[in-house]
Each structure stands twice: as structure tokens, then as C-alpha cells.
Design a protein that fits this description.
Length: 104
């Protein structure tokens, strides 16, 4: 946290209890990542509506359409600013997301 900003480090599709990546498909991994981010935000008294920017890292940009179909269900019509890039991730990871939230 810095002032009214909350910076959430890159999150993978890891189960918080087991610490292992769950789901082998992009939709399942995207959902797990966003649920992890929601939990972190909630613990700091923020919500997804407070997110002003995300950085998305996909293991292949070809996964964007499937990723985006899940992402859109979490943010509705008020998408935060977003950068999305294709990059090599750790083995088994298809997506990583970091976020910046702001709250008055």
C-alpha cells in the first residue's frame, strides 16, 4: 500500500491453501487468478471496482480471447486500464495478473 493506492503483485493460478497451480486451461486459471486478487483486495478493504490498472501476462497471446471472456465477467463494463503481453511464464502457468487499486 502507498497512500490510497494498493499494489497487488503478479498473481498466478495457485490455490492459496496448497500453493500449487490449479486448472490446466486458460479459463480456469484466469478465474483462480482473479479470485486470488479479489481476496487480497478484500483483506485490505478494497474491491475489484477499485482496480484502476492491471498488467496481464499470457503464456501465449493466442489465449487472449478465452482469457478475456473470463476477465470481462469480473470487471463488467468499467474495465480498468490494462496492458496485455505474451511472455514466458513459469511451467504450468498460462496467465499472471498484477493490479493497482485506488480508493478515496
Amino acid at each position: 500500500m502507498a497512500g490510497k493506492f494498493l499494489f497487488v503483485s503478479g498473481q498466478l493460478a495457485t490455490d492459496p491453501k496448497e500453493g500449487k497451480i490449479v486448472a490446466s486451461d486458460i479459463k480456469g486459471q484466469t478465474e483462480r487468478v482473479l479470485e486470488n486478487i479479489k481476496a487480497i483486495l478484500k483483506a485490505a478493504d478494497y474491491g475489484l471496482s477499485d482496480v484502476v490498472q492491471t498488467n496481464v501476462y499470457l503464456s501465449s497471446i493466442a489465449l487472449f480471447s478465452e482469457f478475456n471472456s473470463v476477465y470481462a465477467t469480473y470487471f463488467g463494463t468499467d474495465f480498468p486500464a490494462r496492458a496485455t503481453v505474451g511472455i514466458e511464464l513459469m511451467p504450468g502457468a498460462l496467465v499472471e495478473i498484477s493490479a493497482i487499486a485506488y480508493k478515496e
